[in-house]
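re: that chain from earlier
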Amino acid sequence: MVIVKIFGGLGNQLFQYAIGRALGLKNGVDVKYDVTNFKTGGFRKCELPNFCIDGDLATRKDIRRIQYSRVSLLREISLAIRRKRPHYGKSFILEENFHYSPQVLKIKNDAYLSGYWQSYKYFKKYWDKISAEFNPKNSLCDTALKYKREISTCNAVSLHIRRGDYLTNERVNMFHGLCSIDYYKSAIKVIKDDVLNPCFFVFSDDLEWAIENFSILEGVKFVKLPKATADYEEMFLMSYCKHNIIANSTFSWWGAWLNRNAKKNVIAPSKWFTDPEIDTSDLFPPTWRVL
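^ sequence. v structure.
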């Protein structure tokens, strides 16, 4: 059995789910998902039940059987971090770094995976088999369906502006940073050069700022959904657009990845993190344009 830890926001959870499914298909192992991280409180919640997933949840008995004792586990993780390499101890596998690590897909024995696994390379070979699982389980809300119909009538381009905790949380801001207005202006220019009569649908957790800075954009619409709308609905609205301008966020990364337009233009920021030493070369498919 392989257990994959699920944590973080929706985009992170989808990467973690995808690597688990890829492992199961490649090596014929049972895969379960540890969602206990969401039972300790916090503003994040497990979003996977909103999708047509094919995976079982790990019980505490499953987790205890594979993991080290808590004391040993923390000691081994600490050592792995200090050595800046993965820990392939008895059963606990801590992600080595941000880029693709093909050896992870060779796992066949009991193992517990903890990491972000943010590369399409982990699951691209199996995408045809698992793509249906990344559909919404339930219908979108009425407001989202209205936007979906509007999106279908034009050369829709999603433009995602992530601010929120990237701006207000000092630690998160230092690690991720914000996409600059210059990035968005360059991305818009690329779209206008390639797409006839584009209609920009702006998605943002700071619509007031987005409206203040992008209202002059021709053919722009600001997506305003009810406060109670689930995150996955906004992600799917991005995916229904014909083209995508994403932020340095796995949320809009998945919005673009789930876009089924074979001729889509996807524009992504080259500055994914503030630290230029983090290797993001395995994050973007070769057909995406990085600015």
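Confidence is low (pLDDT under 50) at residues 69-77, 81-89.
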